[in-house]
């Protein structure tokens, strides 16, 4: 048929190298793709095959992850280091090849090794295949808006310092829009993103939060936006003056240039989830310039305060999925696997007590966990290869379905119960049958601080059935699940001091990482993986790895 005849192979080469760039009044060596920050925007149509040849000319081990791509039967291309593949060593290359099907909208790609994603990232845009159109009026132009985070340091050193000492990492020095800090930061008036618009036209903003450790509020002075998609999944139109994006998430929003011609700031600053701590790293800005207007001082939006949880919650909980989307799957009603998973920061014993590795609270090291299992990546073989070749000793399948103690968010003595506060390191995964339906209640713990964790699941979209604050109470909540038109996502910002319920069908064999997308929490262990068994037929099983698959 014509729609299949139009499917194309879209091929790119990524040359990953160190280079020097100037930001915030100084030069800094960074690792980047094809010499640009952010890296190239990849554009495909739904149904296309994407092939990206990655040449690692950087001094670091490297992998690339295609964040939010379903990777149906192509787990070898997913990318998280030591989960689905061993790293591409300096001087080596690997070609990622996968079909982009059953999803449209905005996704992105990023390094999935150490903190390299701070500078190794870019947009991945999926448009409808020929013969199909958007479920909203065709925009005049489409504009990627990549929100990022910048350090005046080598980011790998920043991460290593945090993991070695067990203390929190140093704060970033700026947030960025399309790689630029914007003119509220020193030496940055030329380092400001500008978007030219024509009065009366509508623009599709493809907003991506690529920041490492911060959720962000995004606003445009005097303009409203209409959200039409999140995480490459269509939503019912939702009109708002502020967009909230957690690291890993994306928002597609229509912007109509319908105000008095002039200049308006777009701006983003953190929705800080650590209670009581204001951000020190400022506000990033870009400038919307109506065509034909002369230079004038742009109008600045009033951004929500760093602790404005009601505004964040309103945005996150009001979005609903578009049932008329061609990719809508419906919510599975029957649940095969029920899980209750605590997510949060913990403490762990020092590697060598009394030395530099002991700078966390109580002379211990900061760690994080799911159900008190602090996830450690294997180093000898990727988990996916271990799964495919039946190799023992790389991971264990005893990830607990519930926490070791009944968790009570409101009870301080429970919070300081050692059984919850102190965690141990392991590589425990949850094994599920092909096509099993899985429901996970994610509960923030707040043992060391009241935080919101953006939990990202590789390989699947999930429905968000409910979210709220305090203790999850199954008796009250189940009646309030949205089973009709819940939003579909790959990353859920579990509310500050609260919980969220997600549900998905494990229809893709392989090993699928689930983890906090705050990069500081990933090496601390806030992760696990789903090992989804092969289905009954060759068509429902994971095919063998490609020939150039990196060796450990
Ligand atoms: Cu965008 Cu496992 O990450």
Automatic annotation (TrEMBL):
Its EC number is 1.10.3.2. Binds 4 Cu cations per monomer. It holds the Pfam family Cu-oxidase_2. Keywords: Apoplast, Copper, Glycoprotein, Lignin degradation, Metal-binding, Oxidoreductase, Repeat, Secreted, Signal. InterPro entries: Cu-oxidase-like_N (IPR011707), Cu-oxidase_2nd (IPR001117), Cu-oxidase_C (IPR011706), Cu-oxidase_fam (IPR045087), Cu_oxidase_CS (IPR033138), Cu_oxidase_Cu_BS (IPR002355), Cupredoxin (IPR008972), CuRO_1_LCC (IPR034288). The keyword GTP-binding does not apply. It catalyses: 4 hydroquinone + O2 = 4 benzosemiquinone + 2 H2O. Residues 16-130, 142-292, 398-535 form the Plastocyanin-like domain. NCBIfam families: laccase (TIGR03389). Lignin degradation and detoxification of lignin-derived products. This is Laccase. The gene is LOC105174721.
């Amino acid at each position: 048929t014509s729609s299949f005849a139009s499917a194309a192979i879209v091929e790119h080469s990524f040359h990953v190298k160190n280079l020097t760039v100037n930001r915030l009044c100084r030069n800094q060596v960074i690792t980047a793709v094809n010499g640009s920050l952010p890296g190239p925007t990849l554009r495909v149509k739904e149904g296309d095959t994407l092939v990206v040849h990655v040449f690692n000319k950087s001094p670091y081990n490297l992998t690339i992850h295609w964040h939010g791509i379903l990777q149906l039967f192509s787990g070898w291309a997913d990318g998280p280091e030591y989960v689905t593949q061993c790293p591409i060593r300096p001087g080596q290359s690997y070609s990622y090849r996968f079909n982009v099907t059953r999803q449209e909208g905005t996704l992105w790609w990023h390094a999935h090794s150490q903190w390299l994603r701070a500078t190794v990232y870019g947009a991945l845009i999926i448009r409808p295949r020929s013969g199909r159109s958007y479920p909203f009026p065709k925009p005049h132009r489409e504009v990627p808006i990549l929100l990022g985070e910048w350090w005046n340091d080598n980011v790998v050193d920043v991460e290593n310092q945090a993991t070695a000492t067990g203390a929190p990492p140093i704060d970033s020095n700026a947030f960025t829009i399309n790689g630029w800090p914007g003119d509220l930061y020193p030496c940055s008036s030329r380092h400001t993103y500008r978007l030219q618009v024509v009065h009366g036209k509508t623009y599709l903003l493809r907003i991506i939060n690529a920041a490492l450790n911060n959720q962000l509020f995004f606003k445009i002075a005097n303009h409203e936006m209409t959200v039409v998609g999140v995480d490459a999944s269509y939503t019912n139109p939702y009109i708002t003056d502020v967009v909230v994006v957690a690291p890993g998430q994306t928002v597609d929003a229509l912007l109509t240039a319908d105000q008095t011609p002039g200049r308006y700031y777009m701006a983003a600053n953190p929705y800080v989830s650590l209670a009581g701590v204001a951000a020190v790293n400022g506000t990033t800005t870009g400038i919307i310039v109506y065509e034909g207007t002369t230079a004038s001082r742009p109008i600045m939006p009033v951004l929500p305060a760093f602790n404005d949880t009601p505004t964040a919650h309103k945005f996150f909980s009001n979005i609903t999925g578009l049932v008329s989307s061609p990719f809508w799957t419906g919510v599975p009603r029957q649940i095969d696997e029920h899980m209750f998973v605590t997510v949060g920061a913990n403490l762990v014993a020092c590697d060598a007590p009394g030395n530099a590795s002991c700078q966390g609270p109580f002379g211990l090291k900061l760690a994080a966990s799911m159900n008190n299992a602090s996830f450690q990546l294997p180093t000898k073989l990727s988990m996916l290869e271990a799964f495919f070749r039946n190799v023992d000793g790389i991971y264990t399948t005893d990830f607990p379905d519930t926490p070791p103690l009944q968790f009570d968010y409101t009870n301080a003595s429970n919070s300081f119960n050692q059984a919850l506060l102190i965690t141990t390191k392991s590589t425990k995964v949850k094994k599920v049958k092909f096509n099993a339906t899985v429901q996970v209640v994610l509960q923030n713990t707040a043992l060391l601080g009241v935080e919101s964790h953006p939990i990202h699941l590789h390989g699947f979209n999930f429905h968000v059935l409910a979210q709220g604050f305090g203790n999850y109470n199954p008796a009250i909540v189940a009646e309030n699940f949205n089973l009709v038109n819940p939003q579909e996502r790959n990353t859920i910002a579990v509310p500050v001091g609260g919980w969220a319920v997600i549900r998905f069908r494990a229809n893709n064999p392989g090993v699928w990482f689930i983890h906090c997308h705050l990069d500081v929490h990933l090496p601390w262990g806030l992760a696990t993986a789903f090992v989804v068994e092969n289905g009954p037929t060759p068509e429902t099983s994971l095919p063998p790895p490609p020939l150039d698959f990196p060796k450990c």
